[in-house]
Amino acid sequence: MDTSSPSAFVNGALLRRYIGQKVRTVIQVIGSDTGSVVGKSTDDLQIVVRGPSPTPPLTTYLEVIGIAESDNSIRAETWTNFGNTFDPQNYNELCKLANGEFKHLFI
Amino acid sequence: MFSSSQFEPNSAFSGGGFMSSQAYESSSSTAKNREFQGLVPVTVKQITECFQSGGEKSGLVINGISLTNVSLVGLVCDKDDSKVTEVRFTLDDGTGRIDCKRWVNETFDAREMESVRDGTYVRLNGHLKTFQGKTQLLVFSVRPIMDFNEVTFHYIECIHFYSQNSESKGQQAGDVTQSVNTTFQGGSNTNQAVPLNPVVSSQNDGNGRKNLDDMILDYLKQPACTARQQGIHIDEIAQQLKIPKNKLEGVIQSLEGDGLIYSTIDEYHFKHVEL
């Protein structure tokens, strides 16, 4: 996979726009299964993340960078712990801006 | 957090001073390609874009501002510290990748770079340089990110800076020119009232308002008024200055007492005392 390609900032609702493309988002883990993690996106939608599980210890919020597989699942390439004090609302607004008026600054 | 801007005198803004470029832009007539010494938050995409449109110029231009010092947030990749004096790595901020170089001359620098590993999110402050067609970042400050709200913050700041500069570029042309008060001299020698521009002269007293005395004197000093032998009737003064007669009476009396005006044919006609 070409990891140098830019990744779009998405939340749950924007994920469907980038199916097959590289995306990044922050989720709050609500459950995990073998080979997949179920998380809540910054706009309170459920996202399933498949692929190699993140290595513990995990914080409340995790950033996942990977390829969007469907409108609610991502195949992860990179996980980053984003801490416990992350503000999901700010990130959500950023996603909207980065895909809207200011898209040309990002993608 | 940001290095201070040594450029703007009024950079009291907490954003590191680059926001005050707005104030500067409206006062300078040519705002394009100015040297801007502040620290600008950018995404890698902005850097690569502006480089492509600018070509091999001396400075990179983003939003009409020639800039060299930038601030970036992203993931460190391909860290190469095989050389003792310099550390190279690539920064991937999700919008693109840029090569970075950090000179390590002191132990402080070395320690700073040790904490930076592949896969770490860092805040970089550095100097943009183009070398052999490639844009590179000469980094002078690297800090691993502890609170990841900084990541969100950085991108929002990039958006903010960009939109601030796009806005101020649009308003740039509308410089407000000071309206100058000009003295209007009526050139009539007849007995008719002298047409008077409501803003007669720029003569102001200390508190910026025109005194009634001055207004009357100014009116009477006009050549058309001084030319009239019999003086100006107080009714006419009231009409021309658009001030009620009763207000004028007291002032005229004091002006007369001061010896600035005198009554002529009767107690209602006045002329300015010419020395």
TrEMBL record, chain A:
CDD domains: RPA3. Keywords: Nucleus. It comes from the Eukaryota. It is found in: Nucleus. Its main location: nucleus. SUPFAM superfamilies: Nucleic acid-binding proteins (SSF50249). InterPro entries: NA-bd_OB-fold, Rfa2. Belongs to the replication factor A protein 3 family. This is Replication protein A 14 kDa subunit A. It comes from Camelina sativa (False flax).
Automatic annotation (TrEMBL), chain B:
It is found in: Nucleus. Residues 187-206 have a biased composition (Polar residues). Residues 187-207 are annotated as: Disordered. Coiled coil: none annotated. Residues 70-145 form the OB domain. It comes from the Eukaryota. Residues 160-267 form the Replication protein A C-terminal domain. The keyword Chaperone does not apply. It holds the Pfam family tRNA_anti-codon. Keywords: DNA damage, DNA recombination, DNA repair, DNA-binding, Nucleus. InterPro entries: NA-bd_OB-fold, NA-bd_OB_tRNA, RFA2-like, Rfa2/RPA32, RPA_C, WH-like_DNA-bd_sf, WH_DNA-bd_sf. The keyword Disulfide bond does not apply. Belongs to the replication factor A protein 2 family. This is Replication protein A 32 kDa subunit A-like.
